[in-house]
Design a protein that fits this description.
Elements (H helix, E strand, L loop, with lengths): L8 H4 L2 H16 L1 H13 L24 H9 L10 E11 L8 H15 L2 E5 L2 E7 L2 E5 L5 E4 L6 H19 L4 E4 L18 H13 L3 H7 L2 E6 L4 H21 L5 E2 L2 E2 L5 H5 L8 E2 L11 H10 L4 E4 L2 E4 L5 H5 L13 H8 L3 E2 L1 E3 L3 E7 L3 H4 L1 H10 L2 H11 L4 H14 L4 E2 L2 E2 H19 L8 H9 L3 H10 L9 H4 L3
Parallel strand pairs: 10-13
Antiparallel strand pairs: 1-5, 1-6, 1-7, 2-3, 3-4, 4-5, 7-15, 8-9, 11-12, 14-15, 16-17
Helix pairs in contact: 2-3, 2-4, 4-11, 5-6, 9-15, 9-16, 9-17, 15-18, 16-18, 18-19
Length: 500
């Protein structure tokens, strides 16, 4: 069903063995201490990296010899782990607003909120210069998106019960501090009321670079940065072949997840013509670094091919001496050759590669785990449903194979059609002889069956989306019905309807 790539790291040997072999070679060239520092530093971060939450760490040792493509491949392969060590990581973003005015909260309010959380609930502060820009506690982190969207990046956890408990604990803490400040949080995929000019800008150096670059490569990049919220699920793989299978299944089904969780029908106080405005925005943000990645379905796909793709994605920045160096539009390949104009003669480290991977935004993203990126932000009751959906499909071998069999003859044109049309028509999108809803019904059953076979009594987390699939009515369509009816043509009530 799934062809192995040319670099069969995992069909003959375990990925870690391949990595260890590569490291022995690197020790001969770079020296024992440098390699141990670099890869131990990576390993300590565990399954869930904190790159979004904090400024990248400076390398303690300057690279004096070029990284090779094999090093970059080995970095991805180092994420392989046996099934018993697979974990679930969730990330969710939400809009903060003043309860009295519904206006977005400013950085100064966010600063006070972060300080309050740190003092009351024992979080460590993450600083950029004099600014607190996030918090960390164990393997959880809280970070800020460009317009102040408040994000929890969860710890890698074993069961959906633990994941849901983590979300509930986070929301309890945030509400405990925020309510005293007159601040609420909204679970929706696109800012429903305010224009980009009304959104405060967070004091993070990488966002300054992105803000200047985005209008050069797409018409909706600033909307993406300042007015969208998403929920994301991060999942592990055991081998290169397992990664390929999960990547393909995840990409094929991402439009179905987008439809089921579609929750962004308003813009500046009115319906915007979409059920998932957030998803549509990604079609014209920066197509060099977003989309459905058709090469994932090629027979040659594997870690090496993803590295080739990532090397060709234009850079955003390099982090040096606690500041971001603008490298927008430049080539990581040139960086590897010591020919990056802003840093002449300087060579990248694995930290630079790790940072670069965080600036790529396809519907499914590969790091040392796979990120499912297609869902709109939503209220707390749906935050546990998205990981349940993907865990049931991708962590159960029977469900995963059923998905691969079901989608094997889907064409590139069909996948792209779904990617384009689902943000507008959701589960009512025509597909082959029926509607996407009919496919979603089969997929949801596979997810439920997969969860039941896991044996953790997790299938109840899918109840929140079962009605959506059965009726074909997305959360966005329910909001539109309220807007045209009970709300009398005002979006203001959505701040209460979807309040955390």
């Amino acid at each position: 069903m799934v062809a192995a790539s040319r670099l069969s790291l995992s069909q003959q040997i375990h990925c870690h063995d391949a990595l260890n072999t590569r490291l022995k070679e690197r020790k001969l060239r770079f020296g024992e201490n440098f390699i141990n520092f670099r890869f131990n530093n990576i390993a300590k971060r565990g399954n869930k990296l904190a790159m979004h939450a904090s400024p990248p760490t400076d390398d303690a040792v300057v690279a004096t010899e070029p990284l090779t493509k094999e090093d970059l491949v080995a970095y991805l392969a180092s994420g392989c782990k046996p099934k018993e060590k697979w974990r679930i990581g969730t990330e969710h973003e939400k809009f903060g607003f003043e309860v009295e005015t519904l206006r977005p909260i400013k950085y100064e309010q966010i600063r006070d909120l972060l300080n309050g959380l740190a003092e009351r609930f024992d979080w460590d502060k993450i600083m950029e210069g004099d600014y607190v820009i996030g918090l960390k506690q164990g393997k959880q982190s809280i970070s800020l998106e460009p317009g102040g969207q408040f994000e929890l990046s969860g710890a890698p956890l074993e069961t959906l019960h633990q994941t849901c408990a983590e979300v509930n604990s986070h929301l309890y803490q945030v509400k405990a501090v925020a309510e005293e400040m007159g601040i609420g949080f909204l679970g929706i995929g696109f800012q429903p009321k305010w224009a980009v000019k009304d959104i405060p800008i967070m004091p993070k150096g990488r966002y300054d670079i992105m803000r200047n670059y985005m209008p050069k490569v797409g018409s909706l990049g600033l909307d993406m940065m300042f007015r969208t919220c998403t929920v994301q699920v991060n999942l592990d793989f055991s081998s290169e072949l397992d990664m390929i299978r999960k990547f393909r299944a995840g990409l094929a089904l991402q439009p179905i997840a987008t439809a089921i969780f579609a929750n962004s029908p308003f813009k500046e106080g009115k319906p915007n013509g979409f059920l998932s405005m957030r998803s549509h925005i990604w079609t014209d943000t920066d197509n060099n670094r977003a989309g459905m990645l058709p090469f994932v379905f090629d027979n040659s796909f594997g870690f090496e091919q993803y590295v080739d793709y990532a090397l060709d994605v234009p850079m955003y920045f390099v982090y040096r001496n606690k500041r971001y160096v603008d490298c927008t539009g430049l080539s990581f390949r040139d960086f590897m050759a010591g020919k990056l104009p802003p840093l002449p003669g300087e060579l990248p480290t694995l930290n630079d590669w790790e940072n670069h991977l965080t600036t790529i935004f396809p519907e499914v993203r590969l790091k040392r785990y796979l990120e499912m990126r297609g869902a709109d932000g939503g209220p707390w009751r749906r935050l546990c449903a998205l990981p349940a959906f993907w865990v049931g499909l991708l962590y159960d071998e029977v469900s995963l194979q059923n998905i691969l069999d079901m989608t094997a003859d889907w064409t590139r044109e069909e996948r792209e059609m779904l990617r384009t049309k689902v943000p507008v028509t959701g589960l009512k999108t025509p597909f082959r002889d029926g509607l996407l809803r009919h496919v979603a019904e089969d997929v949801l059953k596979m997810a439920k069956d997969g969860l039941e076979r896991r044996g953790y009594k997790e299938s109840g987390f899918l109840r929140e989306v079962a009605e959506v699939v059965t009726t074909g009515v997305t959360p966005a369509e329910k909001l539109l019905e309220l807007y045209h009816g009970k709300w009398g043509g005002s979006v203001d009530p959505v701040f209460e309807e979807l309040l955390y």
